[in-house]
Amino acid sequence: MSEQHEGTTLTTAERTLVETTGIEVIDESERTAKPSDLFWPWFAANVSVFGMSYAAFVYGFGISFPQAIVVTVLGVVLSFLLCGIIAIAGKRGSAPTMILSRAAFGVTGQKVPGVVSWLVSIGWETFLAIMAVLATATVFRELGWASGTATKVIATLVVTALIVLASVAGYHTIMRLQSVLTWVTGVITVVYIAMTFHLVDLSTVTTREGGSLESVIGALVMVMTGFGLGWINIAADWSRYQRRDASGGSIVFWNTLGGALPVVLLVGYGLLLVGSRPDLEDGIAADPIGTLATILPNWFLVPFLLAAVLALVSGAVLGIYSSGLTLLSLGVKIPRPAAAGIDGVILTIGTIWVVFFAQDFLGPFQSFLITLGVPLAAWAGILIADIALRRRDYDDRALFDPRGRYGAWDWTAVGTMVVASVIGWGLVINLFAEDAAWNNWQGYLLGPLGGKDGTWAYANIGVLVALVLGFVVTLLARRGTVRRQEEGAYDVAPAELGDRR
């Protein structure tokens, strides 16, 4: 249990002066959420039939069904567990993730991981919007309705409008919507499983040959990056309304359960379904959700589309809400609705480009995901270690003052992230060289492991290496710094502080 550090809470007047709308520290009277409340947004954002399509990507590493099950359970649970740990910071500081990260990187230095976080969020929310538009077009085609350009244009406008409007509504509205969406999408997803279960052929599934250790690790990294690590940079955004006396263990539990439970079940079923129908794999690569709809009777296509789109919109809402907060944390002086509007424009442009002009988006997206996954993993390791080292709540005022106890730059944290990223990039390769040739510079440290064509190249161990390096180095090198911060000490002599204190 963390302690409240005396004298570090802002007054109402000070909040107005030092914080921008959207990233303010939550007032004590508004901190009424319970740990169990965290279940709903995480479950709703992840109970998507898109999770089933991930089975094709897992099998793409050439592993067997038992190996795929182990990879799925371990990768999903572990990655959301890391999200849960970072969510503890939200309870301790009642501010967005990228504001709380200033305690580790410095108020100004936090902009380094902040840019990475913003790009990841923008990428994910655009990806989810693209999935919703493509799924709509495919379902309309299966129904014999218009599925051409006009349908895609309307779907793009409707989907992007829903995402932006919901994110502008704010935390409390989103939390209420997510609890409803959980039931709607959950029920329809269960019906989908019931209607397609007869297609499962265990004899076909179990005949898949096993893969090497390198292949298993590669699939594990992809699962971790595609699920929990894809959300980790916004984990504290949804726990900042937690009561100060809420149990950290309960926060971790409900966060992990809400995110991991639907994913494990859906990917697990997808492994059975796709393993029984290898013909689905090629279609999933181009249109994951639309391909899953092709095996349904026509009368169920509209409910299926509704559930799929709502689930994707649900996930994108979390992303765009948090990307707006991240944009504000970078120093952009605009209201939160305007930040959501900027991200909404970017999302719309990205969706239009992929839906109407790009020949293939999955390859470039996966390449993008692994590339940004390396520095994001390094940042996560650093912040998790920083959270583990702290015993007191954050100093609200210092999170917004580069002259405060957290300083402007923490060069140890920034340097650790840079070095861990450089090492991590050297241990991953661009798996989609033809689709994303701009990313072929990676893998420069793979020589001793067989080079870019060796078996370890496809394991993408650089993501795990960056995560572990960030954690271990921070745990060892910043212990004294964290202790001085919590004691209110500064790295400069008192005479140099003047009236800063």
UniProtKB/TrEMBL annotation:
The keyword Transmembrane helix applies. One of its GO terms (molecular function) is transmembrane transporter activity. It is a multi-pass membrane protein. It is found in: Membrane. This is Allantoin permease. It comes from Ornithinimicrobium avium. It comes from the Bacteria. Belongs to the purine-cytosine permease (2.A.39) family. PANTHER family: PURINE-CYTOSINE PERMEASE FCY2-RELATED (PTHR31806:SF1). The chain crosses the membrane at residues 39-61, 68-90, 115-141, 153-174, 180-200, 212-232, 252-272, 307-328, 340-359, 365-389, 409-433, 456-477. One of its GO terms (cellular component) is plasma membrane. Keywords: Membrane, Transmembrane, Transmembrane helix, Transport. It holds the Pfam family Transp_cyt_pur. The lineage of its organism: Bacteria, Bacillati, Actinomycetota, Actinomycetes, Micrococcales. Its main location: membrane. The keyword Transmembrane applies.
